[in-house]
């Protein structure tokens, strides 16, 4: 398998009135061709910032730096603005969280679906519309021909998200970044959209970086998972490893917050992680999770943990020396 | 879209009828018309005679309808003061005011929208500050003073353009600039605010994520949505310039509608006042209607209402 995306030590800094907000603090990511990587984490952990940095859509004042940010051999960091624009939309595209506001209210869906491919691939309007109709149909939009002349406000949220998915696929990209694409939808629609993304991803062999806060979603669709906390990846590995053998206290906490049908007795107490995410302004010494961690030791306050690959299941990494020790002992 | 236009038209017509009633009442609220027409030195018999001759003895509803039916035929009667019919006066003055207003609005739009867009794209840079300064000066400077400055520079010193009158299109340039500069700041700032809001919206992020050119993002996706309130404002400003350009008209000795209204008001020339009020109101209504239609063309969501 060839690697579509490789990111090393990605950092995103945002200047604010109270100091520099270090939203992303050194993230490593790699995505193989046709793979679904889920980035999980709670609000404010920097997962959306990561996706925006990958797409190059952060506001101008945000500072992005990385040791490496390579997309299919292209160094995204050194690419000129114009060349980056040529990659964006053509080879990597994005699906957003808010289908209700992500489409321009003033233009027809046909116009918005076709403009990208007409620009990037120089297709004629007829050819572009042909592809749009095909993809709308594949995305489960009824009466696709009719939709081209419709406006966003004439469609429901679920349908608009299907249109967004079709739009992301227009140029057959190698990578799609989906930033919480189901969060704003009804639960029934969520399941349909998830299945759709998974199906299309496998059909077209597209790599997907799927951002979510919902571990239920992750379990259903991910090949690999990266758990984010306070701007860092705290645990990453194959989906099975993460769910069967959660090693970071944060991942363990997240998993124990999910009720399991059949196992969790009705009316029983549901776990929650005490406390909240620390402020991301300025530097953090030690482990960012220590104030909410049951296993925290004195060392956690002073030693900043690194991501360690710990045992046989390949590529399972965790950022917690305490867990790594106990896991090693267990092995 | 046709249904929308038809509905808006109905609204416009009902407003026009309301305005016509108000405009008619204006004449009657100003005192006993027969006495006013007859003059201070007339006898009671003469006043009665005039009352009958002008139909002022009939019920007010009947008077309204007979006035309205002649008004729709553009017959507003004779001026008390000028030796002309009201319609002659207006058809002589209205084109001047319309030319001036349209030119001024053209200049204002031509400057305000690009400047507003530029200020928004270059937010918080010196370009933004400069645009703001131009706007503040335009809002703060009295229009007569700016008009006089223009005359001194371009007419008196440089001899490029005439200082006053209305015989050629050259005569309209300076007054249109003066009037346009007065109308420009509000439009510019509204464009800037609108652009800033739209540029931060989700669908602009979508457009960027498709790798569209900056031109396409700014002009196709953002401007069309940002300009909607500006269209409504432009309509109001043009309406305002039709009736309120009196200062500029005096400075450049353009005999427009504003001057006519001023003369008529100061001489209690009610038929003229009434006709001017009605015409300006009808223009306002027409402009609002046009602005509504333009906005509905720009934003499909407005067509449903």
From TrEMBL, chain A:
Protein name, entry field: ABC-type dipeptide transporter
**SUPFAM superfamilies documented for this protein:** P-loop containing nucleoside triphosphate hydrolases
Superkingdom classification of source:
Bacteria
NCBIfam families from the UniProt entry:
oligo_HPY
What membrane topology was assigned to this protein in its record? Peripheral membrane protein
Give the Pfam families listed for this entry: ABC_tran, oligo_HPY
Which Enzyme Commission number(s) are on file for it?
Answer: 7.4.2.9
Enumerate the CDD domains for this protein: ABC_NikE_OppD_transporters
Q: Which family does it belong to?
A: Belongs to the ABC transporter superfamily.
The keyword Transferase is assigned to this record: no
Question: What InterPro entries does this protein's entry cite?
Answer: AAA+_ATPase, ABC_Ni/Peptide_Import, ABC_transporter-like_ATP-bd, Oligopep_ABC_C, P-loop_NTPase
The scientific name of the source species is: Marinomonas aquiplantarum
All copies of domain ABC transporter, residue ranges: 5-255
Give the GO terms filed under biological process for this record.
peptide transport; transmembrane transport
Compartments reported by the entry: Cell inner membrane
From TrEMBL, chain B:
Q: Which cellular compartments is it found in?
A: Cell membrane
**An annotated GO cellular component:** plasma membrane
Which Pfam families does this UniProt record tie to the protein?
BPD_transp_1, BPD_transp_1_N
Coarse class of the protein's main subcellular location: membrane
Name the UniProt key words of this record, in alphabetical order: Cell membrane, Membrane, Transmembrane, Transmembrane helix, Transport
Looking at the UniProt entry, the stretches that span the membrane are 9-29, 96-118, 130-156, 168-184, 226-252, 272-298
What Gene3D superfamilies does the record tag this protein with?
MetI-like
One MF term in GO for this entry?
dipeptide transmembrane transporter activity
Membrane topology note: Multi-pass membrane protein
Domain of life per record: Bacteria
User: Where do the ABC transmembrane type-1 domain residues begin and end?
Assistant: 94-291
Cross-referenced CDD domains, in alphabetical order?
A: TM_PBP2 (cd06261)
Keyword Cell cycle in annotation: no
| Protein family (similarity comment) | Belongs to the binding-protein-dependent transport system permease family. OppBC subfamily.
Protein known as: Peptide/nickel transport system permease protein
Supply the source organism's classification: Bacteria, Pseudomonadati, Pseudomonadota, Gammaproteobacteria, Oceanospirillales
